[in-house]
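Standup notes
- DV: blocked on the single-chain target, sequence here:
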Amino acid sequence: MLIPMEPDSSSDQRPVIQASEILAKIERGEDVEYDGVIVEGDLDISGLDLPTEHVKRTEHEYRTLGVTNELKVISSQIMITNSKIRGKVIFSNARFLGIISFTVAKFGDVASFLGAEFRGKANFWSAQFGSDARFDETRFSGNASFVGAKFGGFASFEKAEFGGKADFWGAQFSDFVTFRHAQLSNGADFPNAKFSNFADFRHAQFNDYATFPYAQFNDYADFRDSEFNNRLILKDLKFVRLYITWNSIRDNLVYDGPTYLALIKNFKVIEQFSDADDCYYQYRKESQAQKKWYSKENRLIEFLVRSYNWTSTKIRRIFKYLSWIKDYSPFTWIHRFNWSKLLDWIGFVSCGYGVRIQPIILWVLSSVLSFTLLYKLLPPSCGGIAESGPSTVTMEAVNNSTLLFTFSSGDGAVSSSWGECLYFSFTALTGGTPDGLHPVGLCKYAVMVEGVLGYLFLALFVVVLARKIIR
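- DV (later): unblocked, structure below
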């Protein structure tokens, strides 16, 4: 639950503490503990005489962040809670060995923790950042809590490293926010977080679970080239445009039907049609896996629903106190076959739910080869493929005044080579009959079945191809 901040006005009766007093305690190595105060002045540790440790900095850290390779070491535990800080907070280029807590603190100006290291917990629970909040290349060894924090200005966590849990539950980002190249190693929580402006997560690495349930991206969110190495939860995520690739999330995305459908629509809008097809295919597979071949129903429940329109809640309440009802034969459990799962299975094996051409090609090749084998191995007594020849007429004298004419079809023996059977099978699948050959006996019915399959495969192929070409 968020604790509301008191309005910043001249009538505020909280005691005023000078920033110099706090800085003096930090320089002496004393713990800083203030609750419900107003801090007047800038909290800038850059000029303090503190122990330092040599660290290796990159060229980017030198030029862009302005930090040095001499890291100030602060052993004090700093806890400034339920307070207002009217000046700047410059805690950059420092290593904090103790707990840092700014719970329900209000930062009136820039808060900078550039290149800092937090060895203990960092608690910014329900903090309010009135201006820019800079955590570029900051390292959090312990848990970092920004639960309910409000960022009024630009918020940057670029190249930040979260060794512990990164908790942004209910955080609100009013301006541009970036987690570009950030490393979140031990879980990242963004439930109910609200991003009012562009959110940049490019090249971010989520080594543990990442959760965004009920989060809102009111502007574009960019997750391109990000890595998700564990569970990803996007349940009821609301977004305008989500730039992300399906391959980066397909193995870790936790199934949620509306989320999948929203992603499919999003992929089409940003013209990632291949990702849209792959996402739809995975959605149908996951949806099918949720179904069972047989549904278990109770005759008593069915009777009460149909006859009296009872609700499921009322029925469950009855069963809670009358559990013995199910033991009586009139109220036994029955199983119904799930035709929906059967249709899903047919759609899967036939054409990959309408987004895969490969299964159709495989079915065509399998059918041609199977019928080729049938035509070749069918016993002559049951029929086969006969060679067609010209009809002949034979005249035979029965007596001096009568002639008998005999007509012969000219068909050859029911026998064909493997090549002829293959040629005949392929032609039959496409709805034709090769010259010089025709089916005999039971083979006629096989040709009929193969022809029907050919038209079915052609229809599936045209539908899938048209779906891919015409978007």
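- Follow-up: Residues 174 and 193 are 11 Å apart (CA to CA).
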